[in-house]
Design a protein that fits this description.
Blueprint: H1 18-23, H2 28-33, H3 38-48, H4 60-65, E1 76-81, H5 90-97, H6 99-113, E2 117-122, H7 129-142, E3 158-163, H8 173-180, E4 204-208, H9 209-221, H10 223-227, E5 230-231, E6 234-235, E7 237-244, E8 250-255, H11 260-265, E9 279-283, E10 292-293, H12 294-298, H13 310-313, H14 317-320, E11 328-333, H15 338-352, H16 358-375, H17 381-394, H18 402-426, H19 428-433
Parallel strand pairs: 1-2, 1-4, 2-3, 7-11
Antiparallel strand pairs: 5-6, 7-8, 9-10, 9-11
Helix pairs in contact: 3-6, 5-6, 6-9, 15-16, 15-18, 16-17, 16-18, 17-18
Amino acid sequence: MARKLLLDKANVPGITSFEVYRREGGYRSVEKALKMAPAEIVEEVKKSGLRGRGGAGFPTGMKWSFIAKPEGVPRHLVVNADESEPGTFKDRYLMEFIPHLLIEGMVVSSFALGSNVSYIYIRGEYAWIPDILEKAIDEAKANGFLGKNILGTGFDCEIYVQRGAGAYICGEETALIESLEGKRGNPRIKPPFPAIKGLWERPTVVNNVETIAAVVPIINEGGEEYAKIGVGKSTGTKLISACGNINKPGVYEIDMTISVEDFIFSDEYCGGIPNGKKLKACIPGGSSVPILPANLLLTTAKGEKRLMNYESLSDGGFATGSMMGSGGFIVLDEDQCVVKNTMTLARFYHHESCGQCSPCREGTGWMERILKKIDSGKGEMKDIDLLWDIQRKIEGNTICPLGDAAAWPVAAAIRHFRDEFEWHVLNPEKCLTENFGLRHYADPIHVPVTA
Ligand SMILES: Cc1cc2nc3c(=O)[nH]c(=O)nc-3n(C[C@H](O)[C@H](O)[C@H](O)COP(=O)(O)O)c2cc1C
Ligand code: SF4
């Protein structure tokens, strides 16, 4: 059984209340951190090797050390709880079942960053969670762990919860800041980065919910101890939200030394594929990351077992690898149609594009239309090349990474499953009647065409 640092207490009855959380050892990290210098806390986070859990995996301690400290200008911590990436629902679990862990991590992180007013920006569809968080905030305040003069140290900190209105783009940190300021959530051109000019043009750090929660065990146990868990630059534990064709969908806290194969097939985690079906493919890190066919998912191109961590999942680059991303693990069995799945994702990105840059605004729509055409049996061979061409022209040519996030799933689907696209063109009459009509891909497991 892997060690749990975040969810170990999530099943304790009554843990959402301050009383039970405190009895179980909660808020110890605040007592410890407030006796340290802010720079010492940043140092511990650096030593821990913690990488941002929101998707990009940027080292958290380094990000914190970039925050500007102009004299007399307030700084802010903003927690990104927008969590709108299809397949990703780990932050929801954490906030719903162990909300004080986030509040505790925020008090410590706010102290380290010099933020006296911090925010949680939460997606609007998580309609019931702000009440849970606000109750935790009230309880922490009533018990002296939040608000004015925390634990008599002279440190003041307020936390406010702000609901989003249901736009995926508001998870992008600068769009989130715009939205928090009351404007339309359009991403800003960077630089300047938020650490220099963020909320209200003040130095701001935006971190994911899980990242901030992980600060609690880092302070309690020390950065070096935390870094001993995991492997390489994938230290600590990671929350994975697993869904799709698996027997046990849910949120799992893993030690990043476990293999992808064990994660999918062991009873401790996903419990295998229902009805004895074969594994066809997986999108291992939320809908934006490249899909991998089963053989490349379980084994890297070097023939090594692929592990559930940042380095191993991206081994081989996009030719044969993918990304850890946000930890949204979507499993596809042999009956699933990659063309249809890619079309569904393309529709999502087209809908969510903010429209500021033409490659993303126009390109996502074109990709959706062409994928619909192929999926419905009206496609031509040249459409596959056109699709490839369009995604190439979006990637890297936009203000924010939503453009890349829209391009990568299409690129990977064509790269690894081109023959499935061709089958749709060659068998138009079967496209609608047989769902995808490609059961032969499942046995033997599809051998990918690598670009
Ligand atoms: C379109 C888009 C959506 C994003 N959505 C989220 C999100 O829901 N939650 C999140 O933490 N990060 C999201 N990110 C990443 C954030 O911009 C930012 O990198 C992250 O919040 C930083 O936190 P971390 O360093 O703790 O990972 C998104 C990025 C893009 C481009
Ligand atoms: S890439 Fe798309 S979502 Fe991002 S700023 Fe450009 S148009 Fe908006």
